[in-house]
Amino acid sequence: MQTRIIPPTPGAYAFPLLIKRLLMSGSRYEQAREIVYRDQLRYSYKTLGERIARLANVLTQAGVKAGDTVAVMDWDSHRYLECMFAIPMIGAVVHTINVRLSPEQILYTMNHAEDRYVLVNADFVPLYQAVAGQLTTVSNTILLTDNPHPQADLPGLLGEYETLLAAASPEYAFPDFDENSVATTFYTTGTTGNPKGVYFTHRQLVLHTLSLSTMLGSIDCVRLMGTNDVYMPITPMFHVHAWGVPYAATMLGIKQVYPGRYEPDMLLRLWQTEQVTFSHCVPTILQMLLNCDRAQGVDFAGWRIIIGGSALNRALYDAALARGIQLTAAYGMSETCPMISCAYFDQALMAADAEVRADFRLKAGVPVPLVEAAVLDSSGQVLPADGESQGELVLRAPWLSMGYLDEPERSAELWAGGWLHTGDVATLDHHGVIDIRDRIKDVIKTGGEWISSLELEGLIALHPAVREVAVVGVPDAQWGERPFALLVLRPEQEPVAATLAGDLKRHLLPYVQQGQINKWAIPSQVAVVDQIPKTSVGKLDKKRIRADIKRWQADGHPAIVAL
Which of the residues are catalytic? Predict the structure, then answer.
């Protein structure tokens, strides 16, 4: 194709898409609006800009250069927000360490990322000390603490964060550089092998922020966050930059509330005192909040929450709505920065009743601006968008990770055929809605039929005795696989555990008769447990669940009940 390209005018300013542009906008709109940290600190956007400049000066004077990797180990805090800007704005790369990984995995990620400097919260000093002797590239550390009299034994300690900032200049001339420079990196875990390093450039993060802001604030049918909202993340900031929302909130000058360590009482106190209106989290965190003592009898009217990371089931949706919380499902993954899709109601759906709209709020939603999605069969052919044809969801967007850090083979697999492969089984319908049916590795094949563990979990969760559920496939000599359900009961329902097996079968039979699931979907075995294993970011840990069940079956564990 012959296109027309006009050379730039001599002297015209080539405007690179850099993270510093996001910070400029927010302080321009709302200099007096607040950044809040727990019940300990609050300051204005003007002060935010000054503190980011102070941190940039501290890092530069410590020897941080463009291209260096600076790691952060902290809870969700104002400090983390400052790091997410200051570090990439001086041309360095911020490594957001997943503090819930094992020490061995943390050590691997820090050495693989070639971290040079580390900012460590006092709570994680023992964890850091456990790996410090085996770090190969780290030269210096900075202590992060809420303690007015900080003390810590850290190798190469430059000092305490607030003390260093207080002595630094509140002005810094942040340079221009190539917008394709890497700004952030973090590690995502899979079922096998070491964690994989995901990375994003300034350009990708700016474009993701613009699209995310459009989706959250301009889609009237599900409007979630605008300039007058109060934002509090309930997703760890080490997890895909808290889903990228802090960048969007800062660009728009929105009041931001950072809760530190996730403690139900503190989260609910901040929601109430700071009048929080928008948050995001995984289902397990929301269940924890709704079930805690402080939440009982509380009306959460006006709180809008995006649910991601795991499927949003109808039972949790209804429970939250009864308490005044409007939930909306969204979809993304570590490799997608993460926002890919969110609920959207076209005119036909807006005219439908509330029950139909609720069904669409539970799905992954419509791709956000600039995202292209398709569903492929096993041969790589695009399947029709008919709401029925299932295949692997594949994606294209300007902010998708271009690969895994220093892992060309895994990167090529991720991008086979020019599409980013999600590993999720999904459908697309004529509304453009993505419906995630399962992870490819979690689909259960039994009796010659494919069963979605996500769909089955959603139906079992509707049983009044069930608080949490996870379904996995376990090997079966006759059927290949059979569904196995792990259940956590509501406290008041524990006496029904003895009769739950038969009751659960009766609960699922109507869905078989309606054709929603086939008869092979009814689990052959269940186990009632006190808690279900979760990953470091709060998802169901199905790898561990399968291993536990295999061990229980070998040992004849009494918790297993046949249906």
Answer: 188, 335, 445, 450
